[in-house]
Amino acid sequence: MSLCFSVSESAFNLRYGFRDSEPMGQSLKIRVKTGTRKGFCPSKVVCVDYPRPDIDNTSNFLEAAYLSSSFRTSPRPSKPLKVVIAGAGLAGLSTAKYLADAGHKPLLLEARDVLGGKVAAWKDGDGNWYETGLHIFFGAYPNIQNLFGELGINDRLQWKEHSMIFAMPNKPGEFSRFDFPEVLPAPLNGILAILRNNEMLTWPEKVKFAIGLLPAIIGGQAYVEAQDGLTVQEWMRKQGVPDRVTTEVFIAMSKALNFINPDELSMQCILIALNRFLQ
């Protein structure tokens, strides 16, 4: 297979393939050098195998599996409910699945001709495929991992190295990475990933953000719930974190969680997600 790009950026990482529960997935890394002569595109393709992490025996995963199995093992209803579900996104599809498991009769309605909601893909007028970016599922999401296993589609997944790659708004064509080393457990790998990245966060910003998170770590769920009245932007300003961090870093998390901007999303959502990642 030959691939050639005409780009100004010096390197890209592209990944493709399928994963099963056994380590058999492929990761395609394509490195493209700039300044090439006409008709020649030197590229280095390296296929790397990333095995499925050991998440099946974690407390979060076992809890999700137990709750899911309760729908199938519960007594069959004498009068099955007919339930109408509006929207065939991932939530609607999974709701219909679990209602059927429990013996009820779901009716799933979708206005568009594409199922999947935010995880769906579309083809534009030029014939190019595009998607909303929510095709990545963290291992810390036990419910979705359990659902994939029940549906028998684990072989459709490819596990990749734990990295978060951000396009830098003020530097078009440049990217910044947060690499989480596999040799360290959470949350140490996340702390190191943040400390090693000085492009997205300066050291003063890291310190301010860390101090702001201390009450969440110490106060736990009570503190998290108390932040529901603050937006992400308001919470960041309260901690003295510059708006630049919100618009360049946390806008990505806000969009991924609820598809709305940091000045609209509750900080509670962000703290719940960060807590899950830290675990």
Describe the structure.
By secondary structure, the protein is α+β, with helices and mostly antiparallel strands. It has a domain at 48-67 and 77-160: Rossmann fold. Helix content is 37%, strand content 14%. Strands 1-2 form a two-stranded antiparallel sheet. A two-stranded parallel sheet has the order 3-4. Strands 5-6 form a two-stranded antiparallel sheet. It is globular. The model is unreliable at 1-37 (pLDDT under 50). GO terms for molecular function: phytoene dehydrogenase activity.
Task: Write a brief structural summary.
InterPro entries: Amino_oxidase (IPR002937), FAD/NAD-bd_sf (IPR036188), Zeta_carotene_desat/Oxidored (IPR050464). The chain is 37% helix and 14% strand.
Secondary structure layout plus pairing:
Blueprint: E1 27-32, E2 43-48, H1 59-73, E3 82-86, H2 90-101, E4 105-109, E5 121-123, E6 129-131, H3 142-151, E7 163-167, E8 175-179, H4 188-196, H5 203-219, H6 221-226, H7 232-238, H8 243-258, H9 267-278
Parallel strand pairs: 3-4
Antiparallel strand pairs: 1-2, 5-6, 7-8
In the CATH hierarchy, what is the superfamily of the domain at 48-67 and 77-160? NAD(P)-binding Rossmann-like Domain
- What overall form do the CA principal axes indicate? globular
How are the strands ordered across the major sheet? 1-2
Instruction: Give the uncertain stretches in residue-range form.
Output: 1-37
Largest β-sheet summary? 2 strands, antiparallel
- Global mean pLDDT: 78
Helical residue percent band: 25-40%
User: Counting H and I runs of at least 4 residues, what is the number of helices?
Assistant: 9
Quaternary status: single chain
- CATH fold label of the domain at 48-67 and 77-160: Rossmann fold
GO molecular function, one term: phytoene dehydrogenase activity
Domain Amine oxidase: 90-278
GO cellular component, one term: chloroplast thylakoid
Protein name: Amine oxidase domain-containing protein
